[in-house]
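README, section 4: Worked example with a bound small molecule

Sections 1 through 3 covered apo chains. Here we extend the same pipeline to holo records, where the ligand is supplied as SMILES alongside the sequence. The molecule in this example is zinc ion. Nothing else about the input changes; the structure line simply encodes the ligand pose together with the chain.
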Amino acid sequence: MLLYRINEKDRTVSIVWSINKNELLSASEKEQVYTFDEILSQLEDFRNNRSEIFENLRITMMSGLNERIKVQDLVKNVGSAVIQNSDNVFFKYYSNLLTIAYMNIGEPILMPKDYVKERFNHKKLVETARAELQKQFDEILQAMNDERNFDYSATGEILVATPRSQLAVIRTENTNIVYRVADKPLLTFFYEFSFAVYNAGLKVCECRFCHRHFLGTEEAVCCEREECLAENKRLKNQMIREKRKNSDYTRDMDNYTAYVRNKKKDLRIAKVSPYVMDEFDDLKKKCKSVVDIKLAECVEFGLPVAELAHTIEEQEAVIKAFRDKALAENR
Ligand SMILES: [Zn+2]
Ligand SMILES: [Zn+2]
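The generated complex, written as structure tokens:
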């Protein structure tokens, strides 16, 4: 049997993939811990990439019953394909489960007590066994193909009646671990997992860097993989630097505007002629456009603030020269 417990706080799932009743005390040693993200990606991988090999497994088993292929030989036939796909924990679990089912269901055909009687009833026995095995495949496929089982937003209505939802409580001197005993196709596991995801305020997101799916909060932009976190940090720092630079630009521009305003005020106080004032305004416009062009260049290419400051200084000098000359001539 398979035991599991979902830890919402840590966002992990502990699974004991296979254990007998009399081994229960050692369950925690056999436990494997997966993050929510790992479970999500294993599930997506099974549902997206393993259906063909799973169907091949079904076909091989079905004809195996007909041809009296012993389970050892069956394992030899499908062995390499199963091994190749056992990086997916769900595939591994199901294929083990079905191999055992094949052995049990096929027993009257593969290892009959009375061979003559088996020969005589072969067709009928195979029919029954195949129907039984097919039922197990169907249960798994139904569980895996039903979108509602993987509805992490918990919007759909689900009514599940699990007649025998069992717990395995393992209590020793210093532990008290409560596992759920999973049903074979893992139906309740899927329900519980998706609800735990929902309850933790997570949803399926796509990482902006590696484009893998992960479970994140509303604002999450990238997955927890090291390289993605590093890339995200790099971008963030770059944005901070840019922001700081932009605010430096703004400060220099404000200072420039104030400088020009003050110089104009000097002229007004000295009561220079309106003709000179007009000339000043023309010059002001010209200088401003030089500064604006430089600013745009700085923003576009992220140039150092000193570049803008240099242009501003030059234009301030032009403005100052005009003002000094106008004041001198006004005396
Ligand atoms: Zn995607
Ligand atoms: Zn990523």
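What to look for in the output: The chain has two domains: 1-224, 228-330. The two ends are 104 Å apart (CA to CA).

Section 5 describes how to batch many such records.
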